[in-house]
Amino acid sequence: MEYDDLYQAGCMGLIKACDGFDPSLGYKFSTYAVPVILGEIKRLFRDGGAVKVSRSLKEVSLKVARQRELMTHQRGEEPTIAELSQALGIEEEKIVEAIGIYNPTVSLTAGDETGQTIDIPVPCCEEKITDSLSLREVVGRLEPVERQIVVLRYFQEKTQADVGKALSMTQVQVSRREKKILSRLREMLAE
């Protein structure tokens, strides 16, 4: 697997995370983004191949690169995404996506004065943290009432009776709904 493909999958995951993030849920962006990015990288391994870039996105990328170069040459500074969007009549999200497909990768090593490389430490994610982030990501994909049940039961550790009172449901209704939700969560986590 090429490093560039992994980087590309990570970038695609980041874009998906930006599109799907809902700040009203009260979670940090990173809590949502990490499992989405990891999911894209896992999907790349599962599908066993390079990241595919559509022809239309390649064409947009070429237009963006030309316009970017022209504007930089004319003004002596890099244009903003908004300026590129306005100049080309293309949505800002598409501009960002187009720029991302051919951006050079960032090395996790840096050279010192002697020319030797120094590894830049990347903090290791604990499996427990990754599992927690993955769970929060799939919980974020549930319907609002289902999400409330999960948050109240497992993040705020409320009883089924307390959840029922908060959501105007009986304890039995909460129990049945919770079983269905947990089954769906298991399926989503297995994806």
TrEMBL record:
<dbReference type="InterPro" id="IPR013325">
    <property type="entry name" value="RNA_pol_sigma_r2"/>
</dbReference>
<feature type="domain" description="RNA polymerase sigma-70 region 2">
    <location>
        <begin position="2"/>
        <end position="48"/>
    </location>
</feature>
<dbReference type="InterPro" id="IPR014284">
    <property type="entry name" value="RNA_pol_sigma-70_dom"/>
</dbReference>
<keyword id="KW-0731">Sigma factor</keyword>
<dbReference type="InterPro" id="IPR007624">
    <property type="entry name" value="RNA_pol_sigma70_r3"/>
</dbReference>
<dbReference type="GO" id="GO:0016987">
    <property type="term" value="F:sigma factor activity"/>
</dbReference>
<keyword id="KW-0804">Transcription</keyword>
<keyword id="KW-0238">DNA-binding</keyword>
<feature type="domain" description="RNA polymerase sigma-70 region 4">
    <location>
        <begin position="140"/>
        <end position="187"/>
    </location>
</feature>
<dbReference type="InterPro" id="IPR007627">
    <property type="entry name" value="RNA_pol_sigma70_r2"/>
</dbReference>
<dbReference type="Pfam" id="PF04545">
    <property type="entry name" value="Sigma70_r4"/>
</dbReference>
<keyword id="KW-0805">Transcription regulation</keyword>
<dbReference type="InterPro" id="IPR036388">
    <property type="entry name" value="WH-like_DNA-bd_sf"/>
</dbReference>
<dbReference type="Pfam" id="PF04539">
    <property type="entry name" value="Sigma70_r3"/>
</dbReference>
<dbReference type="InterPro" id="IPR013324">
    <property type="entry name" value="RNA_pol_sigma_r3/r4-like"/>
</dbReference>
<feature type="domain" description="RNA polymerase sigma-70 region 3">
    <location>
        <begin position="62"/>
        <end position="109"/>
    </location>
</feature>
<dbReference type="InterPro" id="IPR007630">
    <property type="entry name" value="RNA_pol_sigma70_r4"/>
</dbReference>
<dbReference type="Pfam" id="PF04542">
    <property type="entry name" value="Sigma70_r2"/>
</dbReference>
<dbReference type="InterPro" id="IPR000943">
    <property type="entry name" value="RNA_pol_sigma70"/>
</dbReference>
<protein>
    <submittedName>
        <fullName>RNA polymerase sporulation-specific sigma factor</fullName>
    </submittedName>
</protein>
<dbReference type="GO" id="GO:0006352">
    <property type="term" value="P:DNA-templated transcription initiation"/>
</dbReference>
<dbReference type="GO" id="GO:0003677">
    <property type="term" value="F:DNA binding"/>
</dbReference>
